Amino acid sequence: MQTDLSAALDIGGTKIAGALVDPHGRLLVRAARPTPADKDGATVMRAVAEVLGELAAAPDWARVAAVGIGSAGPVGAATGTVSPVNIPGWRDFPLVAGVRALVGERPVVLVGDGVAMTAAEHWLGAARGHANALCMVVSTGVGGGLVLNGRLHPGPTGNAGHIGHISVDVDGDPCSCGSRGCVERIASGPNIARRALAHGWQPGPDGDTSAAGVAAAAQAGDPVALRSFERAARALAAGIAATATLVEIDIAVIGGGVAGAGEVLFRPLRAALRDYATLSFVSGLTVVPAQMGTDAGVVGAAAAAQQSRLDAFVPAP
């Protein structure tokens, strides 16, 4: 029997999703469980095992050649461990060893969730056809990944491209990572909302104080909400321009809940990028919304497994 499928896991603080993915990125079988993030590590691993068990029960499981995991991080690809900030029960947790015990002799590849999203966008999404790209998730946190010279570049630990913790304000507020003025401290959804509230923004009748509520107010022309998104856009632009200057990317792809604000985010982001990406070799940098949506994690985990196994992605039809 042909072994041409990848089993993929997308592990986050809310949901553990799994799929069997064919060489063209089609999801043949899906499975999911809520993440018991408030439980101990063994309980979380049991949820992973249930997702894998459901996939393994499908007839197509026999065609699986490799397993890819995209996990909230930090991840340790060299050691096979994960320490997701939103899953307290997992600290240096031996995830790869746990998955290997469930999947037999198949190779298991671990990358961070930002790297997985990048793999998906490069394979089938907004970065397709670009040899050098930065892809970002801007949501509760800010993560990302890199494609360099046409290949996914996870780095030695699987965390390369983690733009959220580039400092763009050296005297800025302390960040949860221990640094100051990080992109995430300014541009993540909770921090967009925090800044708007601190500067006098009032939520609408629905009482929504999230970044989505700020986005709705900004779309209606609220000046405080607009300024909060403009500051987030400048932080993102500074981080993107710094990355482009360092490694010469030509496109930045932005997904996640904050990107759902649309032009409220992208218009000031593109304007700010002109202020930061000034050198000739980065001045043509483009910024576009992500295309892969909620399937990015599993598709990207499958793509990472394919790259590891075959040293190349199979082009989509």
UniProtKB/TrEMBL annotation:
Keywords: Kinase, Transferase. The keyword Transferase applies. InterPro entries: ATPase_NBD (IPR043129), ROK (IPR000600), ROK_cs (IPR049874). GO terms for molecular function: kinase activity. The keyword Kinase applies. Belongs to the ROK (NagC/XylR) family. This is Putative sugar kinase. The lineage of its organism: Bacteria, Bacillati, Actinomycetota, Actinomycetes, Kitasatosporales.
